[in-house]
Amino acid sequence: MTVPRQPTPPDLPGEPEPGRDGGRTEDRRHMIRRRWLTATIIVLLIGIPAGYLVISANQSRNSGRDKEDKYSATGLTEGWPSKVQRRLYDVPIPPYSAEVAYYETNNWRTSRLYVQFLTSNEGLDRFLREIGTKTSALKPKDITISKRDRNVVGWEFTGPGPWSGLTHEQKDPVPTLDVVVDRANARHPMVYVVSTTTP
User: Fold this and answer.
1) Fewer CB within 10 A of the end CB, N or C, for the chain?
2) CB burial class (10 A; 0-12, 13-18, 19+) of residue 98?
3) For residues 152 and 5, what is the distance between their CA atoms, to the nearest angstrom?
4) pTM
């Protein structure tokens, strides 16, 4: 006697066919991994340069604050005096000078411009020539800037040197310049100038 075959029940709705679900799951995992990797790369590409920019900005800001503190403690202002000031006080700072700072005082009797700058030997020669004197006029160990003027801007000429100086006197109202040179660096002298004018 033949037993009739039972009909195969149809697949239930939403039930995956054998073997297909595993493929979808694997595709989903692969897609998640790819998205995660893409997100990580984007974070690294944006985050690392941004981090360097923040660090660099902080270092630059701190360096600027250090310089500002250094000069504010002496009354000097970092940077170059204006062209008008340089012309009025006869202080032609050589091009490419570094560590330039200045301070100006005025009263009813006299006006003074205090200037410091680091230059080359050629720059020093040019500066002295332009104010009307020469390098040979510098006298060894002659600190021509008075103690009073040194105290105004906190200059202390106590380093190893060698130090030299000169006073370039001119008739009023043309300024008189007191110049002190520090040659601790033989190739790059540090120059200090006090220009005094009587209106």
Assistant:
1) N
2) exposed
3) 115
4) 0.66
